[in-house]
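Note to self: user wants both folds in one dump. Writing first protein now.
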Amino acid sequence: MNEQLKKWGKIIGIIILVFFAFGLWNIIVGGGNSRKINTNSQMEYSVNSPMGMEDASLSSSDSVSMGEVDNGSAKNFSMTEAVSEAPSQDAYQDKKVIKNGSLSLNVKKTDEAVDQITQIASSMGGEVFSTNFYERVKGLRSGTIVVKVPGKDFEKAIAEMKKVATQVINEYTSGQDVTEQYVDLQAQLKNKQAEEQTFVSLLDRSGKLEDVLAVTREISRVRGEIERLQGKIKYLESQTDMATITVSLSEDVELAPVGSGWRPGQVFKQSVQDLVKSMQNFIDNVIRFIIVGLPSLILFLIVLGIVWWVAKKIIARFRR
């Protein structure tokens, strides 16, 4: 009895060792064929940039050297125009804050709640930005509605929308003060506008063609920077003037008639589809094993047999 147990123990141990070695073989052989894909992506967003607008590096002073024509004789001169103004204290009094809020509400009827929230936003000069509703159980609708209201009415709108609910599940509000960024953009804009006026005045005094072209290029460059700054300022103003509120709505669960929402036909179709997918996966795996696994297993057994034969020869030689 003990001899049989030892014999079966050896057989099981050999089988386990073979499977373990075969797994290592697959790792070694398969690892060399795998592709390594390194994807390095950088996505940079700036809160003070309009959607998708590229940031431009803006300098506070620019220099231009050109000849000025005066009474038919050319003079060489260099011009450096820098206009810097420190933001005044009054500029900080009108704070620019981006406000966002979210509410998760239980309501009696989703459609009625949506109408009430829309009316609340409209009465304050706001609007519905987007809606997304679905019906997982027949007769019960859930989803979200996103509205924008004036920033000054943000707290009032939150309070009014909470009255629509039978239960306020979650409430979250946040604010981001961008006053410093806004004032800094305004100061940069004034600098660039003053710089543009300087180049325009130079254009009136330039006489040679190359001087006119040089000044025109500088005016075009400064005008582009002015438009970028104006776009950033406009974007910040749109974010601070209107606050965003996201409201998630769920209907209170009520007793439904027997059979409401029960669709055995759909369950049967889904079950058949799952069965077909399982059979397809099984057949696919069999094909993969025949094409890929079986040749790999044969090659592994050949290598294992060679190693076993070499090991037996070496052991036999040492025993002599």
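First done. Writing the second protein, which came from a different request thread.
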Amino acid sequence: MRKFFLILYASLLIPSPRAEAQARFRVMAWNVENLFDTRHDTLKNDHEFLPQAYRHWTYTRYRQKLDNVARVIAALGEWEAPALVALCEVENDTVLIDLTRHSPLKEWRYRFVSTHSPDPRGIDVALLYQRDRFKLLSSRSIRIAPLGRHHRTRDLLHASGLLLTGDTLDIIVCHLPSRTGGVKESAPYRDFVASRIRAEADSLLHARYHPQLIILGDFNDYPSSSSIRKVLQAVAPPTQPAALSLYHLPNPRATQNVRGSYKYRGRWELIDHILVSGTLLDTTSSFFTSDELSGIFAPPFLLVADPEHDGLQPFRTYKGMKYQGGYSDHLPVYADFIDNNNSEL
């Protein structure tokens, strides 16, 4: 099964010669669009994803969804599974166990950590990790307080792990509040969550001797939005990045057939992001990345024709209430980090 997933997919992404000469540590973030199991959680509003509901979310469809998610992770990993996989819109630990142990992904023996948020629908964020490349030291959920009339949102997930270089890598996985109700009306809550992320980032950047921080997930905002540009103060990497500043990585220029990670009313939008601390852009260090080593993963099998607008769109699981059997309404984003140390943990 693994060979089936990997045949020809290696040609979809061509690493730079420099990356091929050194060990590659690939990180990806993906909103998998409603990865629900088929059982009802009495504490959550998951009614639409049950076998008897109007979406007819059957066990067969659930298994297909797991296989689809596994296929994308395998394809993006090329000949080697991504070291870290941040996922948004996963319902619970059950779906993560099924994904990592009972789907074709089981060959890579991923471990995972996840949140258990007060989100009304019960969706959470999770981090899959290759424990021979990222030795988990700790993980915790960061609860977001309610703001006004907005629904409670997802927790942040903070995980710390030891790299092969011997350094600690901090990861914050996030899924900021949606734009339901309007962009302007919902923006204050995203700014509020972003301020919580910024406070956590500042604490880590000043506490670590050699801080290395990655913040990734679905931000529901653009690089130019207030939450990213003003609150998180994350910008495109300059020629000489500051060690304790945050920078925005995913590079739409690396993908020719799409201009974002999500398409809304015919317009591509970049709302899924990978932010890094300036220390991770230092090419003289033993573990680093660059804007040229990041991108949006958009192979042909993740796209279909957009009949209402020009071009292509993500191949979704559902289009409205109609089952499509696709993957997600988002495309994954990724970044490659170069590891100059091949020692064992």
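Dump finished. Worth passing along: DSSP finds six helices and 20 strands in the chain.
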